[in-house]
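Lecture 7 notes: from sequence to structure.

We start with a single chain of 577 residues. Read the sequence below before looking at the structure.
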Amino acid sequence: MRVPVGFFPKLWSFVSLLPFFFLLLLLGFLKAVIVAPIAAAIVVIGNSSVIVGLFPAHFFWTLFCLARTKRLGLVLKTVVLVCLPLPLMLWPVVGVVGSLLGGIGYGFFVPLIATFEAVGAGVTDKLYHCLADGCLSTIKASCLVVMDFTDFCFHSYFSYMDELSELMHSDEKPMEVKLSRLPCCLLASLIGVPVDFLFITLVALCRSPYMLFKGWKRLLEDLVGREGPFLEAVCVPFAGLAIILWPLAVVGAVTSAVVSSFFLGLYAGVIVHQEDSFRLGLAYVLSVVSIFDEYVNDLLYLREGSCIPRPKYRRNMSSDLEREHCGDDKNDRRSIRDGSNNHKLVSEQSRTLKWAIQHYKPIQVWDWLFKSCEVNGRILLQNGLITMENIEECILKGNCKKLSIKLPAWCILQCLLSSAKSNSSGLLISDDVELTRTNLPRDTMFEWFLGPLLIMKEQIKRLHLEENEEKCLRILIMRCRNEIPEDWDDFGFPSNDAVRRAQLQAIFRRLQGIVNSMSRIPTFRRRFRSLIKVLYVEGLQMGSSVKTMRTINGSKRFGEEETANTIRKAPSITDVV
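Now the structure, written as tokens:
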């Protein structure tokens, strides 16, 4: 659809859009009022039942695991055991209140936004979708939220506690605090909390009017000029909805800054303990305000840097590394600056160009992983690397720990091997999709996972694996524990180089650790159960096909034997004569 050009066409587009927008807003608001109580009731009742029902187990098991763990030193363990009961007692209250607010917010805003999405470009039968979208789907999603929360409380929590209780390796050292440093740490935190709270709050409040009016300015320009994210769906008045909700976004940003200032101030005590210097702790208190100010300036496209001094708070940390606290997005935004003297952003002049750089969403990467698990799971089932006993153990007994680690690890290993062989700069998710540092999801959790995978891909690339080694690795990742070097002795790995085998085993252990962390994400267990059911049906069909073929072959062989016996028993021509 053509974007209006000129003042009067833009004005007419704006005026004609207003009635359409208010009708959609009214319809979305009515849907939200109806759906929000139902969704909130499902989330609150379901989550509250899980929280209250498991609270005694969570309370005592947490204290028990902390008391028996070897990963914490005696002093740190004592401090944690003394301070932890109060947060644990507050957990039911926080969980129930958070479920209530989250259920209301989710049940209200999802139907409201779905109403506007229903009139977007490419949607057929817009009237039906305006009335129906966001109602039943929101209620179903609320049930999924309860399921995922239940999985987290039943399985992910106990998995974390089991890991905490595991024995440490010989090269690991327990975390410990030194009593001699605690007074300085406490003093630094007592100074850091009020100072950082005061200055970070002042910075956030001073920048909030600019964030409010500049956001409104851009949204009004998008509404009138139909540029930026509203170019493709020019009939969808998202800008009008965003204009109304933008003050809430500003309030949320300021509130987040105020809340985070407490934790940033407390971290000064950690700096004092790590660096064994009270002076560096005070330097951190001032430096973190400068870092926050520079981050806000860069986020709002203001002047570069900060007028607040930034002293070094790490002995072995250069100023360039300190700037990384501002986030990787800062470098990405600076890379699209033009060369003019006024340092205006390209996106200031044409917001459409800014949206030309597309980042994959976390849900897309998640979908690719489970789709790969489904496709490769069928292959492994046919090849015998996954057996029906493994699948039945997961479905009937609920013991999916082994299969939920091995199968995703096999799929990721396949991705790493193909990416290393093709000299890709990122990860080849599929034939036409490459995940790199420039287009990976802007999500901290996925950066924790994808960053190490990119490093592992480079390590595999430097090893120059042969074809027979790659085939053996695919078998080892499924059938071997990969804990000690001797685990590979019975599988005939082609290389006898002990260093090479140790490097590959280290990659395997790290890969399995990453997948183990992924398996604790709430949606993982639900989606993996669905995947296992698909593989179970596939295995049953394969089993029935094999049984049918055996029956046919057996019948054929039986018929041949009967015919042969009949021929042998029949009289010959000479006998008849």
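Confidence is low (pLDDT under 50) at residues 231-236, 318-357, 555-577. Keep this in mind for problem set 3.
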